[in-house]
Design goal:
seven-stranded mixed β-sheet; FAD/NAD(P)-binding domain; alpha/beta; 2 domains; single chain; binds flavin-adenine dinucleotide; 30% helix; 332 residues; five-stranded parallel β-sheet
Length: 332
C-alpha cells in the first residue's frame, strides 16, 4: 500500500512539538503529530513538569505541558475550518530516512507497522536529565523527582529551595556554580555537594569557590534515599560508610541524554552533548529536517524557548511550501 504524504511530520508532543503542530495547523499545512508511546513519554521532560512558576498564566495549571497539549489538540479538533487532513498518531517513530524529495517515517502499533511520507520533518524528541544511580538504579530518586524535592531546572524551580536544606548532585564545575548561585540568590548558608562516587573534575576557579563559600564535598556513593515520597518527602541521603547528609531539596546536575537517534539516522550534525546544530531557522544539516525545543544546541531548555523555536521552524516550512505552490501557479 502506498504511504500517505504530509507537508510536515512533527515527531514528539511535548511543549515544542505541540506548538509546532499548532503552528502548522494555523498555517493550514497538512501536518501529522506523533505523540510517542508510554515509554517515550516517561522519558520525556514534559511528563515530569508538575507545575510551572516562571511563565505568566500557567500558575493555576496542574501538569501544565501535558494538560495544554491535550487542550490544544481538543481545540484543533473542534475548529471546523482548521486541521483538514491533519492527524495525530499515538506512537513512537522508529525509523526516519530520506525518500526522494521527502522523508519516509515508520512506526508500529498493535495492527503492525505503518509508514508515511513527509516533505518536511520536525524533530521535537527532547532530552532527559541524567539521573543519579542509587544502589545501581535510578528508580529510588524518581518519586522524589515527581514531588519536586529533586530539582532539575534552576531557572524553573530554583526559588523552590528557599528555606530548605539544599544539596547539589554532580561532579563538574556546573555543580559548584549552581550551588554558589543558589547561595547568592536564595540565602542558603550551607551547601552539600554530592558526587555519588565520582571523582570530581573541578577547575581551580570552582575549587576556590567551593572552599570560599564553605561548601561540604561528599565523594562517597549514595546508597539510600532517606524519606518517604508520599509523606515526609526527601529527608536526606545515606552515603557508603554510613554518613548521612540531611537535605530536603536536591538539585541534580549530571548532564543530559539527547534523544537524537532519528537525527543520527539522517546524519544530521550534533554538538558534543548530542544536541542538534541548526541554522537560524532551526533546520539541521540534513535539509528538510528541522529540530525544535530542548534538543537544539545552544538554547535555553525552557518551555517558551521551545515554543519560539517551533514557530520559527514552522513559519520557514510554510514559506517554502507556499513558494513551491506559488511557482507552480505562476507557471500555469
Ligand atoms: C522537573 C522539570 C521541571 C521543569 N519545569 C519547567 C518550568 O517550570 N518552566 C519551563 O519553562 N521549563 C521547565 N522545564 C523544562 C521543560 O520541561 C522543557 O524545556 C520542555 O519540556 C522541552 O520540551 P520539548 O518538547 O523539547 O521536549 P519534551 O518535553 O521532553 O518532549 C519530548 C516528547 O517527544 C516524545 N518522543 C521522544 N521520542 C519520540 C519518537 N521517536 N517518536 C515520537 N515521540 C517521541 C516524548 O514522548 C516526549 O513527549 C522543566 C523540566 C523538568 C525536567
Amino acid at each position: 500500500m502506498e504511504s500517505e504524504t504530509f507537508d510536515v511530520a512533527v515527531i514528539g508532543a511535548g511543549g515544542s512539538g505541540t506548538m509546532a503542530y499548532l503552528r502548522a495547523v494555523l498555517n493550514r499545512n497538512k501536518a501529522a503529530l506523533f505523540l510517542g508511546d508510554a515509554d517515550s513519554k516517561r522519558k520525556g521532560r514534559a511528563t515530569w513538569v508538575a507545575q510551572v512558576d516562571n511563565i505568566p498564566g500557567m500558575h493555576d495549571l496542574k501538569r501544565p505541558i501535558t494538560s495544554t497539549t491535550r487542550s490544544t489538540l481538543d481545540w484543533i479538533q473542534s475548529e471546523p475550518d482548521l486541521g483538514d487532513g491533519c492527524r495525530t498518531i499515538k506512537a513512537k517513530v522508529h525509523s526516519l530516512e530520506q525518500d526522494g524529495e521527502g522523508f519516509l517515517l515508520k512506526w508500529k502499533d498493535r495492527e503492525g507497522e505503518h509508514s508515511m511520507v513527509a516533505k518536511f520533518v520536525v524533530v521535537a524528541t527532547g532530552i532527559m536529565d541524567i539521573q543519579p544511580k542509587i544502589g545501581g538504579s535510578i528508580e529510588p530518586i524518581l518519586p522524589f523527582a515527581n514531588r519536586g524535592d529533586a530539582i532539575y531546572c534552576i531557572r524553573c524551580d530554583g526559588h523552590q529551595t528557599i528555606g530548605h536544606k539544599l544539596s547539589v548532585i554532580g561532579d563538574s564545575d556546573t555543580q559548584v556554580y549552581i550551588a554558589a548561585m543558589m547561595m547568592e540568590r536564595y540565602g542558603h548558608e550551607s551547601m552539600d555537594l554530592l558526587t555519588n562516587g565520582a571523582d570530581p573534575s573541578y577547575s581551580e576557579d570552582a575549587r576556590k569557590l567551593l572552599g570560599g563559600y564553605g561548601m561540604k564535598l561528599h565523594t562517597q556513593p549514595i546508597v539510600r534515599v532517606i524519606g518517604d515520597a508520599k509523606q515526609t518527602g526527601l529527608e536526606g541521603f545515606e552515603l557508603e560508610g554510613g554518613t548521612v547528609v540531611e537535605t530536603d531539596r536536591s538539585i541534580v546536575s549530571l548532564g543530559i541524554i539527547a534523544y537524537n537517534d532519528l537525527l543520527q539516522s539522517v546524519k544530521a550534525d550534533l554538538d558534543a552533548a548530542g544536541k542538534a546544530l541548526v541554522s537560524d531557522k532551526f533546520e539541521s544539516s540534513c535539509e528538510g529536517v528541522f529540530v525544535v525545543g530542548d534538543l537544539v544546541s545552544g538554547k535555553k531548555m525552557q518551555i517558551y524557548t521551545g515554543w519560539d523555536t517551533a514557530v520559527d521552524a514552522l513559519d520557514e516550512i510554510d514559506r517554502r511550501l507556499r513558494m513551491q505552490r506559488r511557482r507552480e501557479r505562476l507557471a500555469n
